[in-house]
Amino acid sequence: MFILKNKYFLIIESIKDIDLKNIKKRKKFLIIYRNNNRVDKLDDIMRFRRKCKAKAIKFYVSNNINLAISIKSDGIYLSSYNKNLKFLNYKNLNFDIIGSAHNFREISTKIKQGCNTILLSKLFLVDYDKESPFLGVVKFNFISKIFKKLIPLGGIKINNLNQLNRTYGEGFALLSEIKKKPANIINRLF
Predict the structure, then answer these.
(1) pLDDT tens for each residue of 133-171
(2) Within-domain flag for 110
(3) pTM of the entire structure?
(4) How far is CA 78 from CA 142, 172, 180, in A?
(5) Quick one: which of 148, 122, 117, 116 has its CA closest to 137?
(6) What is the pLDDT of residue 58?
(7) How many domains does the chain divide into?
């Protein structure tokens, strides 16, 4: 079965994590570049950004406003640990601001930061922390009725993709599964 949503957020840690040739749908994919290790060169990021623009894929940079401005990204992604309100000044640059949160307090912080979309984590059980609580589809849907523009993130794998059709969010976000099986996941998104 295929997953039918309006937006697919793909969070990558390196531009080598995803092959843009696999993406054939236009204007549905958003790539969030979350490079904490700084291994990619600026020229390579610029080249990758141009390829995204040619395929009508929106490109966001995580927590680095200088990089976002220099490569003319579509916006900025604010991690859940980023509580700084200085990003409100960049709304005038036509930057789209996306944030991530784990609870109500972080959701309200992201709203204060001016985020248009908030990635709410964790939807399902994650491999790296089996003891950590997760929301599930019912609880996510309840929270998304209170706060609009929530996107599920966390624990989404190829074997539980069908459950995403029951979520109220207009899309969903992938992090670890896009690194493991990018072609398999992207083929299921149509």
Answers:
(1) 788 788 888 888 888 889 988 877 777 877 888 888 788
(2) no
(3) 0.86
(4) 24, 16, 24
(5) 122
(6) 94
(7) 1
Asked, for residue 89, whether it belongs to a domain, the answer is: no
CATH number for the domain spanning 47: value is 3.20.20.70
Q: Find residue 98's DSSP bridge partners.
A: 77, 117
Could you identify the residue written with the tokens 């990003």? 87
10, 31 in Cβ contact below 8 A? yes
- Residue 55, in any domain of the structure: yes
Q: Residue 91 to residues 44, 97, 116, 124, 146: CA-CA distances in angstroms?
A: 27, 8, 10, 32, 24
Range of the domain at 154: 7-71+121-141+150-187
Q: DSSP states of 124-165 as a string?
A: S-BTTBTTS---HHHHHHHHHHHSSSEEEESS--GGGGGGGG
Residue 52 has what DSSP assignment? Answer: H
pLDDT of residue 173: 85
Contact in structure between 73 and 61 (CB atoms under 8 Å): yes
Category of 128 on φ-ψ map: left (φ > 0), alpha (ψ -120 to 50) or beta: alpha
